[in-house]
Amino acid sequence: MTQFINTKESLVTEAIEGLLATSGGRLTRLDGYPHIKVVFRSDWDKSKVALISGGGSGHEPAHAEFVGAGMLTAAVCGEVFASPSVDAVLAGILAVTGDSGCLLIVKNYTGDRLNFGLAAERARALGLKVEMVVVDDDVALPDLPQARGLAGTLFVHKIAGAIAEDNGSLEMVTDAAKTVISRSASIGMSLDTCTVPGSVKEDRIQLGNAELGLGIHGEAGVEQVTFENAKTAMQMVLQKLEPHMPGGDVVALLNNLGATTPLEMSILANELMHSPYAEKIKFVIGPAPLMTSLDMHGFSVSVMSVDDVHADALTQPVSIPAWPGVQERMPVKISRLPDGLTPVKPIPSSHPATRSTVLAICDMLIEAESSLNTLDAKSGDGDTGSTLATAARSLKESLDRMPLADLTQLMPALGNELSQTMGGSSGVILAIFFNATGDACARGLTIQSALAEGLARVSQVGGAKVGDRTMIDALHPALQALPKGIQAAAAEARTGADATASIIKAKAGRAAYVPEENLIGHNDPGAEAVALVFEGLASST
Amino acid sequence: MTQFINTKESLVTEAIEGLLATSGGRLTRLDGYPHIKVVFRSDWDKSKVALISGGGSGHEPAHAEFVGAGMLTAAVCGEVFASPSVDAVLAGILAVTGDSGCLLIVKNYTGDRLNFGLAAERARALGLKVEMVVVDDDVALPDLPQARGLAGTLFVHKIAGAIAEDNGSLEMVTDAAKTVISRSASIGMSLDTCTVPGSVKEDRIQLGNAELGLGIHGEAGVEQVTFENAKTAMQMVLQKLEPHMPGGDVVALLNNLGATTPLEMSILANELMHSPYAEKIKFVIGPAPLMTSLDMHGFSVSVMSVDDVHADALTQPVSIPAWPGVQERMPVKISRLPDGLTPVKPIPSSHPATRSTVLAICDMLIEAESSLNTLDAKSGDGDTGSTLATAARSLKESLDRMPLADLTQLMPALGNELSQTMGGSSGVILAIFFNATGDACARGLTIQSALAEGLARVSQVGGAKVGDRTMIDALHPALQALPKGIQAAAAEARTGADATASIIKAKAGRAAYVPEENLIGHNDPGAEAVALVFEGLASST
Fold first, then answer.
1. What are the chain A neighbours of B35 within 8 Å (beta carbons)?
2. pLDDT digits (tens, 9 = 90+) for A456-479
3. Domains of chain B, with CATH numbers?
4. Which A positions 342-381 lie with beta carbon below 8 A of chain B?
5. Which residues of B are catalytic?
6. ipTM for the complex?
7. CB B152 within 8 Å of CB B184
8. B447 near B495, Cβ under 8 Å?
9. Residue A498: how many CB atoms within 10 A of its CB?
10. Distance CA A353, CA A358 (A)
């Protein structure tokens, strides 16, 4: 799989440089590349308890993007899915720890525990106050005493971070972190594994299956299940979490594991917030990528029950772009539709001349159905004739409801009728044409001038002009000539329509995407329809 | 491709419900499902100019997630990649437009132009002040008069939004939007097409190729290029944008087209911020998903030159989680490594008895190399023996540098030596063991008690305890028995090591992942090494 990297060896340091370069100076790094990759707050003065987390890379935004006032003081980054070295962790501790001491927040993986643990020993030997907590929120394997650390780690970052920022002592911060960890539970589901840069993606999850209870390093999940839909997927996950959702003050965190689209995440959020367990949820975080696993197409849910103190700490705002904030669960707000959506029905009136003109145009279009379809098939999907004929048939049936005696009313009425009975762009274009023409009539313009103004509006909104191989190529010259009579208009329409056969570079509408050899020699069907109508009207006059 | 959806038909309304349910009441929708999908600010009082955008779905967070004070007033959502209907747009206009009027921000696609255009006509007919701007920031096809609307749309949302929020008139807001559009340019590159829900993914881009100048609806790009790496990819994109980066006050927006990982995006950000064009960049937005194309594995860059007024509007903070904020470009901040990383070298001293004990242990481990490897091959990668032997050889060579006469100094010195010469977890575990033992010696404990405390720390940090099939199964009973003499300790170590052969459910370390049939009947190699050492010491006493 191709990826936007340069070399596998340099990818983590380059990514950290990119993060720093776009941080506006908010973040600083230690001068220890390539082995020591430590990111910390530029505004840090060591006056409070420092919070340090980290681990293998590939889980962005965790952890470096959560460095900032109210969350982490520093992040120690390893290579992809590999623990940072003892020296790197020690460098992080030494760089940010003052008299108040520091808390290491470590996810429960052997490498991280050991390397952070040894760094803590070495820092203590240098006289620093260092505490360490291990996050083990994974509930995929309830019997495993070594549960993994997953997105529940974010609860620790945020709550311990707020308490530290509020000048909490190392003991207070550590106690809070331990309490949060003991109350956190997470489980994930994915439709595919992840692609480790430079490695071939493991083809473990069959199409149509999902893995439940997987880790964030591409480890196999606890079970493969048949994937039905978003609803059952969320149900499976929530069933596993239910034992960890005791009271009513649960905070739920919906995490994107990497490559799940925002649309899917919102659908999963909808299932979460309307599940049978939703009543227990008081706060929600996300959906957002918080603890990812490279490009994994999956999600995880973390839950934790919160008391008032932790809720305060959790909801404290921070200026960290990757932190999506905490929202209270409340019913979806729905507002009734506004008035004015339904067009006012015009009062029908009769006008034999107008009626017969409209009828004649309709009949011409119905008669031309198949020839226009054939023409359209050259450059499109061959339905221009049918679209126009269908609209014409509907219009004939609605003539008795039309205000035929009043052009100012008739024009928008025609527009509204056509926009409802014609599918796609054509109906809208004609509606704009007739609405704007009606507007112009209302302002006292002659029908000829009003029609020209309607066309100008179509051109403006639709962006097509003469020469773009659209119906405008026939309609524009015809309307220009109309003051000289219908014969002149028909001749101009025909000339314009025929000229479209040599416009090989369509610039608007669907034909813009058609190869030129499919266009040459064939009139644009819209322009042809206009020409046929004008010719028909001319011959019957 | 499996996706986290329920049905193709309901996916957009469900996603909007999910967005609203996790918005904490910030967003409201109109009661017009399924056809009218309009999301607007719950706190809107119609006192200012309303900003309305929208279009097909599949571009999240655009546009619904940008609804909020200082950006959009409302978003009108169509189905995936399909324009919303005229009625939907009109409903949006009517719902949020007061006496100050509204501006429609439309991306340059025929369907959107027409539907928003006709809705504007109908709203004007109802007496509302409605203006419309069309965003056409795509520079992939410089000759195409109908350039598409891409992520540059976000510049319009943010700048026009700030001006409207600041009580700007409709004319001011519209003028600003037009100016922003005229100065914006965008182009994207992708390694793969996107997966439209319910459709089979088009296999257009060959592995190793990239498409330059593609649209956000899976349309083919202007050209397929050979993909080299992140650097050349960013260069190609920036070359196309260069004509649109005139002065020094350019803002660059780095957009994730969907499924690009945060790591890749940060690498691309690094290339952007250190490219030859970077000097022209004053502000940067992202990297972040802003205008996506479902799960497209690509990115786009948008640039715009800003004057002071627009810069002010752009950098105005907003409480909209999807908006990543604007950062000023500045050099990456690098801080020198802290002191204390290099362990203080102990002062060598001699102690013949200790020297001979250490030498004896080293020789035993060197001798046991191949038998321990064989044992390890049953449950691991067969290198325990070599790891220990290599460390033992190094240790022998370093004995002259060791403070052999002072156990308090010797213990951490041994730990530091082993953590440098032994790879992987084992070195770290032994380092923690010896460091913590040294700590205990320093506090005046007997060597026996100090060793027991060292082991307790290993257990705490590493998470393994007796019965977990690790070296602790031999070391713990041996240290318990040590006060009774080395013979007793050796006997306990042997009993403990042999007992590991029947521990089929390893709970810590690598063996936790090995099937039980590979474990039964074989001693854990770490425990066996401990037993061999104690037995050796006992027999030589």
1. none
2. 989 888 888 899 888 999 999 999
3. 11-197+206-328 (3.40.50.10440), 352-539 (1.25.40.340)
4. 343
5. 217
6. 0.89
7. yes
8. no
9. 15
10. 9
